[in-house]
Amino acid sequence: MNIEQLVHDVEDVYLKLDEEIATFKKRSGLGCKSGCGKCCLKPDIEATALEFIPFAYQLYKQGKAIAWLENPLLGNSLCAILDSNMSGVGHCTAYQYRGMICRLFGFSAKLNKYGHKELITCRVIKTEQPETFIAAYAETVAGANVPLMRDYYMKMYAIDWELSQKFYPINDAIKKAIETVLHYYAYREEEGLAAAE
Ligand code: SF4
Description:
mainly alpha; two-stranded antiparallel ribbon; 10 helices; globular; binds iron/sulfur cluster
């Protein structure tokens, strides 16, 4: 495992996903309500450790990884990256490094038992943009291009099976990602590999 390569590969998946979501939003007219952030307030969000490797790597590069492991917010059920007092477009304090579940939620589809795509979105969008939602839902069932959750999790499995096959409560996933990055560099330092770079 090479952490820099993992970060590169995960960010590559995020780039493609964000592009596909932007195309879908433009075509469907669906979008988040400005300043909403309600989806981040769900207490039972689950994620994989791999999704937060870019976040953990940034913390490491900024010398904040160890301090973050002692962050009491990691013990809560709400995402520790969330700041619900933050004003502006949302409440994520590390939006650029948010997880894949954060990107997929609201603008992606799953396959139902008949193998048809079903649009997954939030109650705010459904209730405040009902016509637009119904139209997007219908075109999704009809097979229109919408990011498929399964496809993106498969891309993550292909990057690193071990860090992507188990789902944890989001703060545990963040913690595992930080621990993975710290262990990697601690091992490299121990082995004198860091100096060789
Ligand atoms: S990482 Fe950011 S977008 Fe994802 S749940 Fe936490 S606050 Fe929300």
